[in-house]
Every structure is written in structure tokens, then in C-alpha cells.
Amino acid sequence: MNDRSDAGSVGRVRAALAAAGHPDTIRRFGQSTRTSEDAARAVGCAVGAIAKSLIFRAAGSGRPVLAIASGAHRVDPARITQAAGTAVQRAEALWVRETTGFAIGGVAPVGHLTPPLVLLDDALWAYPEIWAAAGAPDAVFATTAEHLLALTGGQRTLLAQPAPG
What we know:
Elements: H1 8-19, E1 26-28, H2 36-43, E2 50-58, E3 64-70, H3 77-84, E4 88-90, H4 93-100, E5 117-121, E6 130-133, E7 139-143, H5 145-152, E8 155-157
Parallel strand pairs: 2-6, 3-5, 5-8
Antiparallel strand pairs: 1-7, 2-3, 2-4, 6-7
């Protein structure tokens, strides 16, 4: 089901996409898309094609750091620290909402109240189409890794944990 309303967090994402000239591909579902597995099930795609957003807090400055990774991988905090150039810590839910304007489970890569440092995992480029959160726990939008890189002004880097073995 598509949602064309411009209210709240989803509206901020829609406005950010429009301002960047990105098509409005936001879709809302009658079910949760909070987790990568939930989103993949709702969309009908591979879990790896879900661009999950993880917010960290930079040590010292407190600047938000947004790590966007494939839903099929766990991120390595040491790689996030290295790419960010500063130590990071997982952010608390209240801080995430106050700083980004999004609740955990709906943190979009665009439309933040405080612009984050954005890091995109290399694994996203393995998929011709990816789906990212669109500001609510039941909303996602379709894009590509290249478009997401341009939309966010982010940095492409390796964030996934090394494979065991």
C-alpha cells in the first residue's frame, strides 16, 4: 500500500527524496518493517537487499553516525569507529528520536533533524535495488546503493563483521 500523506517523519523523508530529485518510492505496509527480516518479508526481497540503519553517537562531539548496512550482515563497531575517525557508542532510543527525529525501527537515511555522518556498507552494492526505512516502523522506500550514497552524501566503506573462520 502506498502512502502519499506528508505528515510526520514519513513526510520529512518524502520531502528529502523530492528535494534530491529521487522518485517517491515510499511504501507503507499493514505490518512491521522494523527488522530486516520483517521488511524483506513485506517487500518480497532478499534480507540482504534491506538497507538497515543503525545510529551511533560519536565520542566527544556527540554527532550522530549513521551506519547503513545490508540486512544480511552484522556491523563491526571497530570498522564504524575507523571509518568515522572517532570512537562511537550505540545510541539510546530517546537520544535517537530527539537527535534524528526518527524512532528506532524507522530511522531513515535522509530527513534527519541533525545531519549525521553517513557510512554505507560495501555489501549494499551487491543488490540492484535496495529498500531503506522511510521514517516509520511500517514504511520503506526503494532505491539503489549509488542513489543512497548520493542522497546521503555518505561514505562507502566496509562495515560488515568479518566472516567467521
